[in-house]
Specification:
Layout (H helix, E strand, L loop, with lengths): L1 H20 L10 E4 L8 E6 L10 H15 L3 E4 L16 H7 L11 E3 L10 H5 L1 H6 L3 E3 L3 E4 L3 E6 L7 H4 L14 H18 L4 E6 L13 H6 L1 H6 L4 E4 L5 E5 L6 E5 L18 E5 L3 E7 L3 E8 L4 E8 L2 E3 L3
Length: 334
């Protein structure tokens, strides 16, 4: 019976996606909603990768190989990309070969032929943003699910994907030589106000056992970019007020786990998809910084109604750090 209900849900998912993507460019920032079926036993398993698109270089291909192997072992349901999908300046357009060279031809393992739920990073905003958001890319590779901000309901867990780049002041006031594609974002303050309101409402209305928020930029980090002040001020209070379990991001080219002393929120960085920043780490309270790795890699997450388990892997597939939480209590396992 379980298997029979997933096929129509998958069909609905594809139809809903095509409907929603055409309205994904409005500055109202209204959250689109997608359905992702869980496994027959109710579990949800996925991988998280960020800061990756370099045509296979900087160990991107090696990380992809290990993702394929771990994905097969876990029988993952989907992959999350935390942004900076195409370096250095996003996609130039729909016909940019980088889409094939950095995505389709790299992540070609059978276990990775699942939906890729993707947010935009600051490097993506330096290119043709509308190209990454276009349904034409999904026609080229049906795994590609990229919107500015959206919700994925996976039954026991709900994911909120947030467009964090427009929050960061320096991209507007000190862009240096970079040119950002702000179509669909301006007027900026209207866009951000609407987005924050939508996120707050979505989290309040969620009845899922687990709540996970995904964005490109860090909220808390010991890496090169450190904390994103604008997100600390504007987004973090909403996460605290709505019992969010995880905030998952990229941006810093590392793997990282920070445990908040202010709430139960765990901050996890998976930005090691290709080029890493060796030795680029800042001091952080050891009560908060549980794990930091300045090399390439990715993470996996496996969730049941009662338990969430996150594991970080290096470019060789070695387990670097694992952490487990149960509803109502937390246990650090290594």
């Amino acid at each position: 019976m379980a298997s029979s209900k997933y096929k129509p849900i998958n069909f609905i998912f594809h139809v809903f996606y095509l409907i929603f993507i055409f309205s994904a460019h409005s500055s109202t920032a209204e959250l689109k909603r997608l359905l992702q079926p869980a496994k027959p036993d109710g579990r949800v398993s996925f991988l998280v990768i960020g800061d990756w698109g370099r045509g296979g270089s900087y160990n991107q291909s090696n990380v992809a190989l290990q993702m394929g192997e771990v994905g097969e072992k876990l029988n993952i349901d989907f992959v999350i990309s935390t942004g900076d999908n195409f370096y250095d300046n996003g996609l130039l357009g729909l016909d940019d070969p980088a889409f094939q060279d950095s995505f389709t031809n790299i992540y070609n393992a059978s276990s990775l032929q699942k939906p890729w739920y993707t947010v935009l990073g600051n490097h993506d905003y330096r290119g043709d943003v509308e190209a990454q958001l276009s349904p034409m890319l999904r026609a080229m590779d049906n795994r590609w699910v990229c919107m500015r901000s959206f919700v994925v309901n996976a039954e026991i867990v709900e994911f909120l994907f947030i467009d964090t780049t427009p929050f960061v002041d320096k991209y507007f006031v000190q862009p240096n030589k970079h040119v950002y594609d702000w179509r669909g974002v301006l007027p900026r303050q209207t866009y951000l106000n609407n987005l924050l309101q939508e996120v707050d409402v979505a989290l309040k209305e969620s009845t899922a056992k687990w709540k996970i928020v995904v964005g490109h930029h860090t909220v808390k980090s010991a890496g090169h970019h450190r904390n994103t002040i604008e997100l600390e001020k504007q987004l973090l209070p909403i996460l605290h007020a709505n019992d969010v379990d995880l905030y998952v991001n990229g941006h810093d080219h590392c793997l990282e786990h920070i445990s908040s002393v202010e709430s139960k929120i765990q901050f996890m960085t998976s930005g090691g998809g290709s080029k890493a920043w060796k030795g680029d780490v800042n001091h952080l309270d050891p009560q908060e910084l549980k794990f930091y790795y300045d090399g390439q890699g990715f993470m996996s997450v496996d969730i049941s109604e009662a338990e969430l388990r996150a594991v970080f892997y290096d470019v060789f597939g070695n387990v670097l750090h694992q952490w487990k939480t149960y509803k109502e209590s937390l246990y650090l396992t290594s």
